[in-house]
Amino acid sequence: MARNFFVGGNWKCNGTSDEVKKIVTTLNEAEVPSEDVVEVVVSPPFVFLPLVKSLLRSDFHVAAQNCWVRKGGAFTGEISAEMLVNLRIPWVIHGHSERRALLNESNGFVGDKVAYALSQGLKVIACIGETLEQRESGSTMAVVAAQTKAIADKVSNWHNVVLAYEPVWAIGTGKVATPAQAQEVHSELRKWLKDNVGTEIAASTRIIYGGSVNGANCKELAAQADVDGFLVGGASLKPEFIDIIKSATVKGN
């Protein structure tokens, strides 16, 4: 089954109004493959979501970096899925390792957040990945399988889920998983989905890679059979994000 290449740009906690406008201008002027070859989603901080949505080209979409686990209310500082829907923001990122580590978001909590966002009509980029310690101890697959299971336990329809494998040791460190390392985990994840969720979902679900992806390494990574795109951090704030989007063409669509 052909899976449409997916490139997400996670801007994290960066930017001013002027910087954001500059990034959007660069994106709007870029010549990139059509939407049937690559789906592009950018994720600015909450405060810039309406600005980016209003200025961004229509073939690119916008994601929030998080939303609350249930309906809004007395949850100071949180943003609800309903608010994102109200602003017509189609995507949200859940389970990013920075939130898992810094805010102690557990596998179960992430599973609940993914399920609630989907129930409100949002599409979800669900992040999973192991630490360096976990990789070195040989527990990579056990860790990412447990993280994926927590989502699978709560989600029946995977149509609006993109799974992002982001080895924590490669995020923002300049260390990147080799194409073979990325392919190995992506392949095992697809096998896990096949065995535990279903053959059709395993074949159709996009599994994207994140962790120090840049213009120099993206083509080799994109050429791997089970790498269906990227979730890009630092490089998504730079013009090389365009090169990463263009790497979709190595799939030969």
Overview of this protein structure:
With 253 residues, this protein is α/β, with parallel strands linked by helices. Helix content is 39%, strand content 16%. It has helices at 17-29, 49-55, 81-86, 97-102, 107-119, 132-136, 140-152, 179-196, 199-204, 218-222, 241-246, and strands at residues 5-10, 38-43, 60-64, 91-94, 123-128, 161-165, 206-209, 229-232. It has an eight-stranded parallel beta sheet with strand order 7-6-5-4-3-2-1-8. Strand 3 (60-64), helix 3 (81-86) and strand 4 (91-94) form a beta-alpha-beta unit. Helix 7 packs across helix 8. The longest helix has 18 residues, at 179-196. The chain is globular and about 45 Å long.
Question: How does the SSE layout of this entry go?
Answer:
Layout lengths: L4 E6 L6 H13 L8 E6 L5 H7 L4 E5 L16 H6 L4 E4 L2 H6 L4 H13 L3 E6 L3 H5 L3 H13 L8 E5 L13 H18 L2 H6 L1 E4 L8 H5 L6 E4 L8 H6 L7
Parallel strand pairs: 1-2, 1-8, 2-3, 3-4, 4-5, 5-6, 6-7
Helix pairs in contact: 5-7, 7-8
Short description:
This protein is an alpha/beta fold and 253 residues long. The chain has helices spanning 17-29, 49-55, 81-86, 97-102, 107-119, 132-136, 140-152, 179-196, 199-204, 218-222, 241-246; strands at 5-10, 38-43, 60-64, 91-94, 123-128, 161-165, 206-209, 229-232. Helix content is 39%, strand content 16%.
Which features characterize this protein?
globular, 8-stranded parallel sheet, 11 helices, alpha/beta, about 250 residues, 8 strands
Helix- and strand-based class? alpha/beta
**Whole-number radius of gyration?**
17 Å
Shape: globular
| Strands ordered across the widest β-sheet | 7-6-5-4-3-2-1-8
Helix percentage: 25-40%
> What low-confidence regions span 5 or more consecutive residues with pLDDT below 50?
none
Major sheet details: 8 strands, parallel
Overall mean pLDDT stands at: 96
Spell out the helices and strands N to C: EHEHEHEHHEHHEHHEHEH
Number of helices, where a helix is a run of at least 4 consecutive DSSP H or I residues: 11
Distance between the termini: 12 Å
Give the total of beta strands: 8
- Beta-strand portion reads 15-25%
